Write a sequence for this structure.
């Protein structure tokens, strides 16, 4: 579905992006580890995962909005070679946010200034980003509103006088003004009604069009299915699967056991939760972080799986035969989760199975981080 | 891969705290120095701040008397330290009393709501409608000059703002779903107030108390300056400035300047620390790790 | 049986958010209440759980009319309801550890003697591991915190559960886990459920019957 011409650089190329937080006592919390993906113009990528898996941290890293105790590694390069991770605050504020990366916020009500009308906020952004002369500000604001299907006769209202859907459109209108090639939507549908979710993501799809790229971060799989061409699944700070949306939601289905579990938990599917809870980002196991909850876990899972062919799993659907491991692998390492209610036991079992592994051969792309 | 070679980490996040850190450190150093001075100097030095030396009256600052001497030859540095001790004590006690009254009244108004709330807040409005220096003067005037009337006067005029802050905070906490959950769990009114509401407002109340110390010191100084506060022989920052008025007209600046600085600098330092505390109190809506 | 009879309620005098709404939940029944945001379904849920005093109408719980609302409701009636709200961050006292949060209803009812085991039992029911119990709300994720809130709602063994958009902020797996926790509790105790939400697929899957707000309000 990618519409970029051959050879054109991707709108966003994320290579080995990692984020960790320095905590008291010299501890580190690894919120994002070695994320890599790229986005071409016209592409819509949904990054999905449980709360606390690090997906919002990844978004904040791309916008340069991490708190002070955060450290990053790797790079996130825009088509003009700007590295979002290396750029200083001045550059981010003047040249990137709004101009190259537009943010569609999680909570439009909090994103809009409550004491000012929508038009005054649109006009301010238009003036800042486009340097529009004062005389034509109003016209530009109306144009911006129309692009986001925000009714022009509501422009002089304050945010609290708008319905949830209109507030979302107002926030989207703000995000679109700078005509940024990359749109970043952080949980744009949280707390919205199903109808409104569908309308919001349809509008986001429309705004992405053929010229922009969209990165949508969400825990709402239905919204992701509706909008995305590609799905990236994040677990415990790592992207464990990245696949075409059609395959992912279609008959082939996800290949990573976690992604399969996540889809299986949907009420329109089997409605069966994944047993256990995600591991702590401050105490990640040596190997595959999902092993303690995984029905396929085996001794192999003590080593960190590498993202190959879009999936990072020793026992992925396609990789079962190739890896030479039997599919079931029950009881191999004590890290096998029981079907129901065995969360505590499974977590303990996995905690005990963290023996050190011998280092594996180095992989390519060691250059990440020196952009 | 991240496990094999540790990636090249770089610190992220904006360093915008440098002036703030500087401010906090300066405030902390001054507050610490002031605290040590008022606590340690009187017992250690054992000099008589009241020692009159008419031969050395109104001397400008010198090595022997770094702050100079007053009109009866008393050493001003020593008088300032003793004065600060009295003023801080008055300010501290008054602030604590005012905070306790204000918190109790505000919490009661917020927790009970309805008629109690309306009655209490009308009372607060009534008190606030009188300029509080005037009210303070009125209260002091009813007693003989001394430390306690000043403490009472300052405390009784300053609990109003705390009551307002605490009430507003209690009202906002009371509307939280966690209070609903507590009620549904069978918690009594008292339990909700003591276990869920009060702990939520105590940091705010504590902050209000610290912020009130400088204010109370200024009030003590103002009352004493007007001759209504502490008796003139008792060195407080207010009485020092007051008794220096005469010499200022004669061109002797030091008896006014140094006590004045002693009012301003320590109180600003305390306010600076309180400001830092206030920044820390900003509620963390999202989790600490932004997860 | 939980009967809501001609409930009119709101937050300002003369401006009712809901007017004349009636709804009945049979013992052991689960009813999903489906409606768009802002329609007043949360207000109805709060009235049902005796947390908001209606301007008019009656709430009858197992044959006894509600004696009052909030603190005025008799403790036995209040604690007959377990409530779970949409936003775990706002539903948890930020100063309590998760263990204290779950044990709070026991302590509020003078049953301080039994928490430790009970807390562990109910934490396990909602899939909370023990290492999380010592943490405070800002140290856990939304999903983990909501699990604790569900445990808190269940720990007094209420006969009725009111879940107001319980899973709106949660991912698919946590949603399924919490719904399963609630359902296994209901199978065991025969408690009735009023689940308020806007996700039709979820409520249809979860509840015995789903009521559309528009049919109630007409």
């Amino acid at each position: 579905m990618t519409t970029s011409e051959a050879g054109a650089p991707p709108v966003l190329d994320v290579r080995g992006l990692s984020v960790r937080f320095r905590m008291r006592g010299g501890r580190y919390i690894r919120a994002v580890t070695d994320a890599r993906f790229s986005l071409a113009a016209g592409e819509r990528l949904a990054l999905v995962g449980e709360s606390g898996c690090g997906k919002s941290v990844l978004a904040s890293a791309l916008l340069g909005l991490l708190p002070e105790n955060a450290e990053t590694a790797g790079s996130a390069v825009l088509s003009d070679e700007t590295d979002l991770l290396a750029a200083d605050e001045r550059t981010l504020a003047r040249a990137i946010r709004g101009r190259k990366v537009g943010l569609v916020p999680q909570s439009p009500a909090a994103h809009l200034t409550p004491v000012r009308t929508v038009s005054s906020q649109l006009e301010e952004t238009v003036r800042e980003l486009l340097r529009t002369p004062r005389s034509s500000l109003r016209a530009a604001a109306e144009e911006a509103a129309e692009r986001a299907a925000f009714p022009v006769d509501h422009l002089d209202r304050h945010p609290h006088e708008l319905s949830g859907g209109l507030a979302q459109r107002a926030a989207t209108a703000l995000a679109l003004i700078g005509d940024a090639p990359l749109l970043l939507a952080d949980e744009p549908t949280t707390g919205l009604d199903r109808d409104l979710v569908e309308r919001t993501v349809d509008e986001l799809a429309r705004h992405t069009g053929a010229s922009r790229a969209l990165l949508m971060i969400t825990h709402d799989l239905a919204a992701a299915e509706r909008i995305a061409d590609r799905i990236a699944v994040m677990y415990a700070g790592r992207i464990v699967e990245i696949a075409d949306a059609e395959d992912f939601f279609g008959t082939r289905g996800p290949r990573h056991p976690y992604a399969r579990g996540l889809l299986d938990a949907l009420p329109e599917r089997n409605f069966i939760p994944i047993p256990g809870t995600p591991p702590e980002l401050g105490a990640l196991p040596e190997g595959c972080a999902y092993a303690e909850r995984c029905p396929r876990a085996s001794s192999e899972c003590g080593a960190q799986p590498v993202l190959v062919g879009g999936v990072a799993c020793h026992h992925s659907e396609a990789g079962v035969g190739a890896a030479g491991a039997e599919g079931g692998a029950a009881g191999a390492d004590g890290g096998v989760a029981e079907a129901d209610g065995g969360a505590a036991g499974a977590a303990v079992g996995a905690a005990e199975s963290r023996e050190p592994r011998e280092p594996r051969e180095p992989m390519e792309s060691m250059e990440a981080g020196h952009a | 891969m991240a496990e094999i070679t540790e990636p090249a980490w770089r610190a992220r996040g904006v360093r915008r705290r440098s002036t703030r850190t500087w401010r906090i450190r300066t405030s902390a150093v001054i507050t610490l120095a002031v605290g040590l001075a008022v606590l340690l100097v009187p017992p250690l030095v054992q000099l008589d701040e009241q020692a009159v030396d008419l031969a050395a009256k109104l001397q400008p600052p010198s090595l022997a008397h770094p702050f100079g001497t007053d009109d009866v030859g008393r050493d001003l540095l020593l008088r300032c330290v003793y004065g600060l001790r009295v003023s801080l004590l008055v300010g501290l006690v008054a602030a604590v009393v005012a905070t306790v009254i204000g918190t109790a009244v505000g919490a009661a108004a917020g927790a009970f709501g309805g008629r109690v709330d309306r009655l209490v807040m009308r009372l607060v409005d009534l008190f606030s409608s009188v300029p509080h220096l005037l009210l303070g003067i009125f209260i002091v005037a009813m007693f003989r000059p001394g430390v306690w009337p000043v403490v009472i006067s300052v405390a009784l005029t300053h609990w109003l703002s705390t009551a307002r802050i605490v009430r507003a905070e209690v009202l906002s906490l009371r509307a939280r779903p966690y209070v609903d959950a507590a009620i549904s769990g069978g918690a009594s009114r008292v339990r909700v107030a003591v276990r869920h509401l009060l702990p939520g407002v105590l940091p705010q109340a504590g902050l209000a108390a610290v912020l009130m110390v400088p204010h109370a010191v200024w009030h003590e100084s103002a009352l004493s300056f007007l001759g209504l506060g502490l008796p003139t022989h008792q060195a407080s920052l207010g009485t020092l400035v007051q008794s220096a008025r005469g010499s200022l007209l004669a061109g002797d600046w030091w008896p006014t300047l140094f006590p004045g600085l002693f009012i301003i600098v320590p109180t600003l330092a305390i306010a600076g620390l309180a400001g830092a505390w206030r920044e820390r109190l900003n509620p963390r809506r999202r989790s600490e790790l932004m997860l | 049986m939980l009967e809501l009879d001609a409930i009119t309620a709101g937050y300002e005098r003369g401006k009712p958010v809901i007017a004349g709404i009636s709804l009945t939940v049979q013992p052991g029944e689960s009813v999903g209440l489906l409606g768009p945001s802002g329609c007043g379904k949360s207000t109805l849920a709060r009235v049902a759980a005796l947390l908001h005093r209606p301007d008019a109408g009656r709430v009858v719980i197992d044959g006894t009319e509600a004696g009052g609302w909030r603190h005025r409701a008799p403790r036995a009636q209040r604690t007959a309801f377990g409530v779970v709200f949409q936003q775990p961050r706002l539903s948890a006292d930020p100063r309590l550890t998760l263990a204290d949060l779950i044990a709070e209803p026991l302590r509020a009812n003078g049953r301080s003697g039994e928490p430790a085991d009970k807390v562990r039992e109910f934490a396990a029911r909602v899939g909370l591991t023990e290492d999380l119990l010592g943490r405070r709300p800002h140290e856990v994720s939304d999903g983990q915190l909501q699990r604790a809130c569900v445990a808190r709602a269940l720990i007094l063994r209420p006969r009725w559960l009111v879940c107001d958009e319980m899973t709106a902020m949660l991912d698919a797996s946590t949603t399924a886990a919490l719904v399963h926790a609630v359902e296994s509790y209901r199978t065991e105790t025969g408690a009735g459920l009023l689940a308020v939400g806007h996700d039709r697929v979820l409520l249809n899957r979860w509840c015995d019957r789903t009521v559309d707000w528009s049919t109630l309000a007409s």
Q: What stands out?
A: The two ends of chain C are 23 Å apart (CA to CA). Chain C has one domain: 2-217. DSSP finds nine helices and nine strands in chain C.
